Structure formats: C-alpha cells, structure tokens
Amino acid sequence: MARVEDVTGYLIRNTSGPGDYVKRVQQTKPAFRLTPSLEAFLEKLRAPSDKTIGRISNTLAYARAITGSKPSYHTNMIRLIKGGNIQVCEVAAPPPAGSNAHRETPYNDRFYFLKVGHACPTEIEPSAATFQGVRSKRKRRRR
After folding, report:
1. pLDDT tens per residue, range 39-65
2. Which residues of the chain have pLDDT under 50?
3. What is the 3-state secondary structure (H, E, C) of 72-129?
C-alpha cells in the first residue's frame, strides 16, 4: 500500500508561467453548483478509465488526463477541480506500468491520479489508481 496525499490546493496555487493553458487554469472560476452539463461531464469521469498523471510541471495545465481536445473540456475539468468535485491525489509510489503516469513521469517515484469526490484515500494500491480497480480492454472486431 502506498501513501496518498491530497495536493489539489497546492496545484491550484502553484500554476504559473506563460501560455493559454496556464492562463485558463488561473482565470477559470470554480463550479460550486453543478449545472446539468457539468453533472454529465462528472458522470463521464466516474466511468473506468486511466486517470493517472505523471509528475510534470503545471500539472493542471498540461496533464494528459486533464487537458482535452477542446478548450471546454479543460475548462470544465478545472472548474470541477476548483469547486471541490474532483481531487488530485499524489501517490508516493512508482506509477503502474502502461498507465498515462508511467509515460509522463520523469523520475518514476510518484504520480497523481484524479479522484471524483471530496476526499482522497489515505492509502491505495498503485495499480488500483490506474483504472479505479477496473482495467478496460479494447475489443477487437472479428472479421
């Protein structure tokens, strides 16, 4: 079991530098009340998927699990994080093999994962953080 720490507030306070993604994180307002579209967005995040993030600078601005193909995806994610609906948890263990964090982390000593809800667990098995206990497999089409 690895130690887990909630680093959401720290990451919000320490996002700095140039660029549109950083500016978006700094200027986005928190979502304290969930609109139907934010509720649907949060419901999609509850689905089993890889929500791990490697140890990178400006995690909220550049992490693969937080930024999306559209600016609205990133904005919604930041609104939910700032509003306390999603927590960013830091795990003091090497990231699981094959996860997003494994590809992104330079030091291989710790990683982050997104937790939908209001609190991070105190301890977790690193492999459980990858897909929240469920490993999704891509189905192959038979010809």
Report:
1. 999 999 888 888 889 887 889 998 888
2. 132-140
3. HHHHHHHHHHHCCCEEEEEECCCCCCCCHHHHHCCCCCCEEEEEECCCCCCEECHHHH
